[in-house]
Amino acid sequence: MPSSNTHSSPIPFASFRRPIITIRSDQVHSEMSHISDIPNLESFQRQVSARFHDLSGVDADELLSISWIQKLLNAFISCQDEFRSILADNKALLSKPPADRIAVEYFDRAIKAMDIFNATRDGVETIRLWQRHLEIVVCALDTQQRNIAEGHIRRARKALIDLQLVMLDEKDSGSMFSQRNRSFGRKVKDHQRSSSSGTHSRSSSWSVSHNWSASKQLQSIANNLTPPKANEITATSGLAVLIFSMSFILLFVLWVLVATIPCQDRSTQVNFTIPRQYSWSTPLSYLHTRIVDESKKRDRRNSSGLMSEIYRIEKSVQQMTDMVDSVQFPLPEEVKKEVRENVDELSSICESCKTGLDPLERKLRETFRKVMSCRIEGLEFLGKATEH
């Protein structure tokens, strides 16, 4: 099903550098004073805080790398599993208002999230395509096998030009894979509880169309996501706190994925807030600050994503392009040394992609299925509850 939104003109990725997340102080009640009726809820909040504290404390070289993104998804999956377990143990509460309404709102956000998981999986495929072009360059300029001749330089130059054209197309038009009708899983029968908003970006949650927008989808997920009021917390015995926390964690993880991985139209500013009163607020705020600071430091206004490996690709491609465009024969020894260093760096990048992208794609697939299964299970229970 095609997306309902129209494709907006790309906005520079610098919009991610703005302080798009702020901390609000107008929420004065403490959720911890309302949650004693639900076992494991306080433990859930502490575990979320601990997991994101670990993610926010890594060194600069690891932050935003493929391996770090996998750890982020692992942390999310652990939170999702605990969330699902607590919901299953509190079905009676979940079926009563206002908990049923709050749960349905989360499940609506979850199905929108599936589009973003699909789109970022396409982004992984895009990086694989870049990798194949890089491998051609490495093969052409492998000084360990032979001396470099003019024909090798021409082959490397062509591969670099092709790669730059592909990357430029990605920035201008979104992923070239975005129109493929792919999915993480088979389409299954689902209870249809659509959002009341008709303006958000929506494909079918099984593929994304050419006019789909990651940034609009994120904004749709963020819309009206505010901490529960004291009376809602009391009426749900704290279940509202659990669902809000999981909703915000989902939103934040999706924001990081869109920021780091090539994704269709992901440059528009997304507005949402980190509430002050939750134990996980501090590590999420610190993590956001680090990501924004990293984007400023790298000056990646036209980057395809903040992933560390993408930064290395962009930097190395520029250096290698400058070198092959200016090279003259016979090659001086210092030029040969420069070629070897650049080829070694490209080889290292290719190896990182080769070993990291498959596990990352599997983790995206697993995360997609976890979110989908929780949604289906929750909606099935709510559907049964309304029949009695």
Strand content: under 5%
How many strands, what sense, and barrel or not for the largest sheet? 2 strands, parallel
* Secondary-structure element order, N to C: EHHHHHHHHEHHH
| Relative helix content | 55-70%
Mean pLDDT score, rounded?
81
Order the strands across the largest sheet as they lie in space: 1-2
Number of strands: 2
Tally of structural domains = 1
Low-confidence stretches: 1-36, 173-183, 185-206
Global Rg: 23 Å
What is the overall silhouette?
A: elongated
The N- to C-terminal Cα distance equals 34 Å
Number of separate helices = 11
> Which structural class do you get from the secondary structure elements?
mainly alpha
How does this model look, in words?
This protein is mainly α and 388 residues long. The protein has one domain. The chain has eleven helices and two strands, in the order βααααααααβααα. The chain has helices spanning 41-56, 66-89, 91-94, 99-140, 150-173, 214-222, 230-235, 239-260, 281-298, 308-326, 333-387; strands at 21-24, 272-275. The protein has a two-stranded parallel sheet with strand order 1-2. Helix 4 (99-140) packs parallel to helix 8, helix 5 packs across helix 10 (308-326) and helix 6 packs antiparallel against helix 8. The radius of gyration is 23 Å and the shape is elongated.
Key terms:
2 strands, 62% helix, single chain, elongated, 2% strand, mainly alpha
Topology of this structure?
Elements: E1 21-24, H1 41-56, H2 66-89, H3 91-94, H4 99-140, H5 150-173, H6 214-222, H7 230-235, H8 239-260, E2 272-275, H9 281-298, H10 308-326, H11 333-387
Parallel strand pairs: 1-2
Helix pairs in contact: 1-2, 1-9, 2-8, 2-11, 4-5, 4-6, 4-8, 4-11, 5-10, 6-8, 10-11
